[in-house]
Amino acid sequence: MTEGNLLALLPLLVFMGLMVAVGIWVRRRAAGTRFVHDYFIGSHDLGGFVLAMTTVATYSSVSSFVGGPGMAFTVGFGWIYMAIVQVTAIFLVLGVFGKRVALLSRKIDAVTVVDIIRARFDSDALAALSAFIIVLFFCGTMTAQFVGGAKLFEAVTGYSYETGLILFGLVVVFYTAIGGFRAVAITDTLCALVMMAGIVLLLYYVLDAGGGFIRIMDGIAAEHPEMLKPENLPLGIYFTQWLLVGVLTIALPQSVVRGISYKDTKSLHKAMLIGTVVVGFMNIGVNFTGILAHGVLTGAAASYGGVDSIIPQAIVHAMPRELVGFAIIGPLAASISTISGLLIVASSAIIKDVYLHQKAKQGIVPLERHVRMLSVFVTAAIGVTVFFIARTPPALIWLINMFAFGGLETAFFWVLVFGLFWKKANCTGAVLSMAGGTIAYCASMAAGVKLMGLHQITIGFTVSLVLFLIGSYLGKRPSREVLQLFFRKDK
Questions:
Q1: Which of 14, 71, 225, 395 has the fewest Cβ atoms within 10 Å of its own Cβ atom?
Q2: Is the pLDDT of residue 199 over 70?
Q3: How many Cβ atoms sit within 10 Å of the Cβ of residue 298?
Q4: Average pLDDT over the chain, rounded to whole?
Q5: d(C-alpha 180, C-alpha 46), whole Å
Q6: CA gap 237, 83 in Å, rounded
Q7: Distance between CA 247 and CA 405 in Å, rounded?
């Protein structure tokens, strides 16, 4: 074990220790509160700053810090123009769904997004399908985060893939399982702050190692002039990416649930402003750093191991060895925050949306102590299961990540948009849309079928829309009670 490796590892160990400490502190502080509400949504008590940071951190995955900048290194400014739509993501999800979801959750005592879907469409079958899709696709996304984070750790520190996986993988499972949503929100805030600091640190050293901004840009203009022309990218790529990582992300369950958790309207508005600024800074900053990496990496991406290796290699080539440990915390924080956010929502889908609902139908009220133990166990079990899958990573892991992203968007976008804003939306339309759209999306991905060369999200998105409209036309109208509950304006 070399001194350089130790220097790279120590800051990360300190950061991981802080994450564990937050989980333990939150667990002790939560004693005596309503467990389910506190564990899964933080008792509707998030302030604006924490709400913004946890939403940003959950939205920003390790691919945002690795795959995205790697593509920017290859494509150039066209990639930044394509990715800039992500700047609107936090503003849209909180602006479109935030207040509506918050008011409804308090009115019907909802803890999860599935609670709202069940109440709106009066269907246990739809709720069960929603919970199944959440757990299924979340496991795929979490696997990608585990693998991506461990590979980044291996590339930068020199330690093995398995060491990285054990170090940050088990830590995130531990603090999420014992601390619940509040621990996730607090650690997400810390992760977001570290992400921003990491971007600034890496950008500074890349510019310094490359001889300054003007010299790097002159080099790009001379050797890669096509990178300065965003029009070189086909319009179809812009369109599908704006859907996949922009507009459709407003319906991701892990983002919508943040609307259930905030304290008041002032906090919501504050979070929308802060979140937009922060995600814009991180998204543009890290992709711009990917382009500027040409100042320190002179070959093509393939010569460094592919697009996913650009940022790790930039860290190694541009930064002093004693600061590498600080730089790697940012991308790993993106992985950690995404895993913890998905993990707590997946757990809530099993405990709240399936187990507790079935007990309530039977007239049984489980002891809070029992629910507490079961919640911690299920959260840990999901995390450990994904951890073991990641030990032998499947091929094409980044495709799996984007596949899961698109599957969640296909399943939930129209169900939430129409369910919350269209009175005629009914259970038949929602079931057909969620089931049929998801099947069409998965089948087209598996078969490699594309419509006019566009990403398969366009197929899932379109099929889901058509089936929802057909089902709502043919199916039974929502009950008067449901319409009054969801659309009557309270004085």
A1: 395
A2: yes
A3: 11
A4: 85
A5: 14
A6: 11
A7: 13
Closest CA to 148 of 482, 468, 471, 398: 398
**Whether residue 2 has pLDDT greater than 70:** no
Contact 36, 344 (CB under 8 A): no
**Among residues of the chain, what percentage have pLDDT more than 90?**
23
Inter-helix orientation angle 427-447/397-421, to 10°: 160
Q: Find where tokens 């890669």 sit.
A: 224
First to last CA, the chain: 67
Tell me, letter by letter, the H, E, C secondary structure of the chain: CCHHHHHHHHHHHHHHHHHHHHHHHHHHHCCCCCHHHHHHHHHHCECHHHHHHHHHHHHCCHHHHCHHHHHHHHHCHHHHHHHHHHHHHHHHHHHHHHHHHHHHHHHHCCCCHHHHHHHHHCCHHHHHHHHHHHHHHHHHHHHHHHHHHHHHHHHHHCCCHHHHHHHHHHHHHHHHHHHHHHHHHHHHHHHHHHHHHHHHHHHHHHHHHCCCHHHHHHHHHHHCHHHHCHHHCCHHHHHHHHHHCCHHHHHCHHHHCHHHHECCHHHHHHHHHHHHHHHHHHHHHHHHHHHHHHHCCCCCHHHHCCHHHHHHHHHHHHCCHHHHHHHHHHHHHHHHHHHHHHHHHHHHHHHHHHHHHHHHHCCCCCCHHHHHHHHHHHHHHHHHHHHHHHHCCCCCHHHHHHHHHHHHHHHHHHHHHHHHHCCCCCHHHHHHHHHHHHHHHHHHHHHCCCECCECCHHHHHHHHHHHHHHHHHHCCCCCHHHHHHHHCCCC
Q: What are phi and psi of 262, to 5 degrees?
A: -80, 160
Which tens digit of pLDDT belongs to each residue from 37-52? 777 777 667 788 888 8
Which pair of structure tokens corresponds to residue 363? Answer: 């007239």
Residue at 175: amino acid letter: Y
d(CA 230, CA 476): 49
pLDDT score of 353: 86
- CA-derived radius of gyration, the chain: 22
Query: What would the two tokens of residue 198 be?
Result: 């990491």
Q: How confident is the model at residue 8 (pLDDT cuts 50, 70, 90)?
A: low
Q: What is the model's pLDDT at position 398?
A: 54
pLDDT digits (tens, 9 = 90+) for 358-393: 888 888 888 888 888 898 899 999 988 888 888 876
Chain position carrying tokens 């995955």: 61
pTM attached to this predicted model = 0.86
Sorting pLDDT into bands at 50, 70 and 90, what band is 397?
low
> Which of 381, 405, 401, 378 lies closest to 143 in space, CA to CA?
401
